[in-house]
Amino acid sequence: MLYRAMYIWVDGTPPTPMLRSKTQMLEEGQEPGIWGFDGSSTMQAPGDDSDVVLNPVKVVPDPIRGGNDILVLSECMTTDMEPHHTNHRAACVAAEEKYADFESWFGMEQEYTFLHDGYPHGFPKTGYPRPQGPYYCGVGTDRAFGRDVVDAHSQACIDAGLAISGTNAEVMCGQWEYQIGPRGAVETADQLIIARWLLERIAEDYGLTVSLDAKPMKGDWNGAGCHTNFSTRQMRDPNGGYDAIIAGCEALGANKDIHVANYGHGIEDRLTGHHETQSYKTFSYGISDRGASVRIPWQVERDGMGYLEDRRPNANCDPYVVNRLIVETICGAASSAS
């Protein structure tokens, strides 16, 4: 009896890598093993040395095909079994292991935009819809566009065993969000990648394109981010947690340039200082401030412990890069200070 294993990986397409996938038939009882692909067709290798290895790192049930079929998230390796230069997961694993004592947790808020015929889903064929405002958490045929896809996606994430914690319509017409976490740095990133693949695959069936563009519509429209919530064991401690959060914010501010440079393509178009963003040229943090680089939720200040929200990562960010940088910056600074 055969079953199907859908191997999923991140390619090397510049400036924003895409997801790729292909299916292997496995015998009942056979575990998915290393596989490979033509890297010259994915911007990951030259034609005269084209083999790239797929190394399975996470297996979940396939909620679309069902039965015994599975999804196999894989990292890209060279034929010497070293991390490929497009593999940013390996460095995230190393950072999480180095600072394991901090017990870092992440929750990532993936915004995205449904496109139909090149325009956000719900935009009229000529002109523009009414200004943004009623679409955020909206309900109704004139405010919520794509809910059927969103609901199918959230159920698929549940069936795949992912830690999806919520969904909502976002500020721009045709824009939505789902949240993954809280989990560790690598696990959250792994699950976010699988959830991205599921979203694109399900949107195929509805004739929609999923855009992770940081600014899908120029003008007076919100961009799309991947706000990243972060805490350590020290931040979650009722005794001194808030001080650890402030120290984390200060560490992020001291390293703002490297974070902005690695938080996704087109960040200058999105972090303008308008539309619920702080300028990419400036760093700030504040309580309940969605116009800051980093927001501290009001409940966190009240409780004196909790987490911070880095609002700068783009929707098209590499979650392994984002989570690695946050761990290295905040936990590294705390280690140096102790």
The figure for the number of domains is 2
What's the CATH C level of the largest domain? Alpha Beta
Radius of gyration: 20 Å
Low-pLDDT regions = none
Tell me the CATH topology of the largest domain. Creatine Kinase, Chain A, domain 2
Helical content stands at 25-40%
Order of helices and strands: EEEEEHEEHEEHEEHHHEEHEH
Helix run count? 8
How much β-strand is present in the residues?
25-35%
Describe the structure.
With 338 residues, this protein is α+β, with helices and mostly antiparallel strands. It folds into 2 domains: 2-87, Ubiquitin-like (UB roll); 94-337, Creatine Kinase, Chain A, domain 2 (2-Layer Sandwich), CATH 3.30.590. It has helices at 89-98, 147-159, 185-204, 241-254, 256-261, 267-270, 298-303, 319-337, and strands at 2-10, 19-27, 35-38, 51-61, 70-77, 105-116, 119-120, 164-169, 175-183, 209-211, 226-231, 285-287, 294-296, 308-310. Strands 6, 7, 8, 9, 10, 11, 12, 13 and 14 form a 9-stranded mixed β-sheet that branches. A 5-stranded mixed β-sheet has the order 2-1-5-4-3, covered by helices on one side. A hairpin with a 5-residue loop joins strand 8 and strand 9 (175-183). It starts with a strand and ends with a helix.
